[in-house]
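Entry type: protein chain
Record version: 2
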Amino acid sequence: MRKKLSIFIILIGIAVALYPVMEQVFAWYWQQKLLSEWENQEAIQDLGQLDELLLIEEGEETEKERTPLTPQGEVLGVLIIDSIKVRLPIISGLNETNLKIGISFLEDTTSFGEYGNAVVAGHRGHSHGRLLNRLNEVKINDRIVVSTSRGDYHYTVYNKVIVRPEEIHVLRTDRNEKILSIVTCEPIRNPTHRLIVQAKQND
């Protein structure tokens, strides 16, 4: 009996230890799945009604196999920052699940390509290059692309600041310019501030 109890306790310990790793695996899976679906979206749409029916069946199958990290919103596009090798899906809705998979779009802000301030937010993964881990390496004049079904929007970085969480004046909307603001935590561990990178859309 004691031997079985010891084995059970050891198994519980292993499961607890592996949980963070499994969570990252699920996050990586959804990140790659959403990017792949986005890249193939136009081809799928062009196949017509037959493919629409096939997509419904595929969606129903996926629903049954849903993981705990299923995206909680619509995929709006892809955030691309070549200077730090970032390529992440942008998902509507700010919630913890979306932040583990990609970038969350704050729905009360301006849409991409329109005058105002489009705000996205993301986590900084603890491992190098994960999510927005390297956002602090972005430099003024770096290029950022937001790729959507309506087209690609090209931006140039003009501002990078670290602020306290309550200092939200940086994100105020300017209706004279088309701004993209990327918000994440600073520092990576035990964050007390926010790192904000802002870019203006190229005309």
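Comment: The two ends are 73 Å apart (CA to CA).
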